[in-house]
Amino acid sequence: MKKLLTSIVISVSLFSAAYAQDRQFKLSKKAGRLILNISDVSVEGYDGSEIIFSAPQPKEKDEKAKGLTLLSGSGYSDNTGLNLSVRDNGSNVEVDYVGKQEKVPITVKVPNTMSVKVSATGAMSSDGIVYVKDFKGESEINTIYNSISLQNVTGPINAKTLYGELNAKFASSLKGPISLVAVNKYIDVSIPADLKANVNLSTSFGNIYAAEGLNIVRETAGNKQAGQQQTASSDSKEWSRSTSIKGRLNGGGLDLILNTNNKIYLRTN
Amino acid sequence: MKKDSLKEFVSVNRDFFEDQKPGPHVLNNIHGRLKLYHTPAKPQSKIVKFGYWWAAAVLIIGISYFAVFENATRNKNTVAQRKEVRSTPAAVAKAKESLETSQKPELGALADSQKKQQTETMLARKDLKPDIGPDGKMAQSATTVNQWAEALKSESSSKRLSAVLKLADRNSLLSVKDLHILFNTMSHDESSNVRLAVLDLLKQQQTQPLVEDFILQSVAKQDDPVVQMQLLSSLSSNEAVKIKKQLQDLSQDPNNIDLVRQQACAVLFRSNINI
Predict the structure, then answer these.
(1) A142 and A89 share a domain?
(2) What are residue A170's DSSP bridge partners?
(3) Number of domains within chain A
(4) Which of A6, A10, A76, A79 to mutate to test the interface with B (most CBs of B within 10 A)?
(5) pLDDT means over runs of 10, chain A (269 residues)
(6) Residue B114 pLDDT more than 50?
(7) Those residues with Cβ within 8 angstroms of residue B248's Cβ, 6 or more apart along the chain or in another chain
(8) Across the interface, do B234 and A160 touch by the CB < 8 Å criterion?
């Protein structure tokens, strides 16, 4: 009886595993730019030569749509099986949704030799996150409602979110410039303690919190080179409540810009 | 007691009577009833057990076939789709064109994008492409003389941002021609991060009347809410009075996002201007 039960459990597990296997689409590419015009996407860098798109099986399949082709007003067609249109035009690979966005997260593994641009400007993605992990290439992220999370990324990075939060934990080796902008919510950044950077931290209505021991030497008229113009920084005006700190961290180096109307948290790894 | 002659006769001649023996199954049956030996397993139960194992094996084979078949179909589709994608670059270009025209009119005409691509190619050919080194700085050759202006046409927002930051680092007075290039970048660049860096740079040049006028006019003309917010939050009362009408329009324009309208109201309030 025990053997019988064991065999049934194993069989059911194998069946479930086979059925629940992610859907995948692969494209051979290791140079150029990947442009993702989709929301709630996870991008993972790796040392490979294929862009691999994957998504879990949808919870509910539309049996009535079986055998029919998904049409879209954009003119794109689903050539991936993931409700995505992937178009390779040589230097750029562009990706768009076909039809309405599925309620399943899309993960894209990208060769570290490529650059990535994410444009998540859909109005229907209010609680989503654009997640970039372990990526060593250049990335540009532009979202309206999606939050942005960067983990173990190298840069250069240009990231902006209008209504979302922006969290970032950088790798030990960084390439600049790094510019992070969150208009409505906070920016939380963790950097290597020995990072050499020209920092520009700016918040209109929030506070700036930094880790103990971060050696930021503020840029003032006194330590500017002779003949330079006085910087008309926003904190020099009597009416402004904004806080702006420009300075050199550990002697200066790459450009690190953090800009928000909310709070800024600057930590060390 | 009377002597039983028959019993005596049988007893004396027993060997002659016991010449036949019962078959082994008779004894087994008797032993079985007496439970002296284990009852051998019923052949029916063996058949049932064998049947379950067969069912499990068939299920596993079925699952394997399903998984392999699914994979094969997926791979087949992938190869076919790759061919399709690569074989129709014209269709792709057309689709991209239609998308850009229909969805992103504010980002400039397609001609600009083509010009950008041409410039990128030209830069690559001349080996003038700005190079971002491991220390995070642009290569020195990338931003000499007007090469920063060329770098502003790059498709890479990081390269455009680097060019602006490098120029800001110089802290020298810019020519009118240079300022106009920057005005154009702040009004039309695709990246908010680049536009903000330009705004920061222009603030350094605010001693030039041309710059102050441009910044004030940008408050109403700017189409990027991120930059609009930055412009509004840095307006002084004196500056707000100069563009009172634009601020009032901004605060009431339903096309603006809430944040911008609220910020415009805040500027009007703190400058003692009626909404």
Answers:
(1) yes
(2) A153
(3) 2
(4) A79
(5) 61 53 88 93 95 86 82 84 90 89 85 95 76 96 94 94 94 92 94 93 88 82 44 38 81 93 91
(6) no
(7) B264, B268, B273, B275
(8) no
Within-domain flag for A14: no
User: Angle of helix B43-87 relative to helix A2-19, nearest 10 degrees?
Assistant: 10
Tell if the CB–CB gap between B204 and A232 is shorter than 8 Å: yes
Residue-level pLDDT at A70? 81
Residue B217's pLDDT is 86
- CATH class given for the domain over B132-223: mainly alpha
- Two tokens, residue B189: 């660049």
Over 90: is that where the pLDDT of B141 sits? no
- What is d(CA B52, CA A5) in angstroms, rounded to the nearest whole number? 10
Burial class of residue A127 in the structure, from the number of CB atoms within 10 Å of its CB (0-12 exposed, 13-18 middle, 19+ buried): exposed
In a mutational test of the B interface, the residue from A6, A14, A98 whose CB has the highest number of chain B CBs within 10 Å is A14
Examine the pLDDT at B127 and tell me if it is beyond 60.
Answer: no
Q: Global pTM?
A: 0.68
ipTM of the complex: 0.81
Does some domain include residue A64?
no
Task: Print the SS3 string covering chain B.
Answer: CCCCHHHHHHHHCHHHHCCCCCCHHHHHHHHHHHCCCCCCCCHHHHHHHHHHHHHHHHHHHHHHHHHHHHHHHHHHHHHHHHHHHHHCHHHHHHHHHHHHHHHCHHHCCHHHHHHHHHHHHHHHHCCCCCCECCCCCECHHHHCCCHHHHHCCCCCHHHHHHHHHHHHHHCCCCCHHHHHHHHHHHHHCCCHHHHHHHHHHHHHCCCCHHHHHHHHHHHHHCCCHHHHHHHHHCCCHHHHHHCHHHHHHHHHCCCCCHHHHHHHHHHHHHCCCCC
Q: What is the largest CA-CA distance in chain A?
A: 90
DSSP type of residue A119: E
Q: Is the CB of A101 inside 8 Å of chain B's CB atoms?
A: no
B93 chain-A contacts, CB cut-off 8 A: 89
Residue of A nearest to B102 (CA): A74
Same domain, A41 and A113: yes
For residue A267, the enclosing domain spans: 177-182+189-218+240-269
- pLDDT of B116 reads 46
In terms of domains, do A32 and A118 share one? yes
Measured CA distances, A170 to A153, A192, A245, A255, B38 (Å): 5, 7, 21, 14, 74
Same domain, A78 and A147: yes
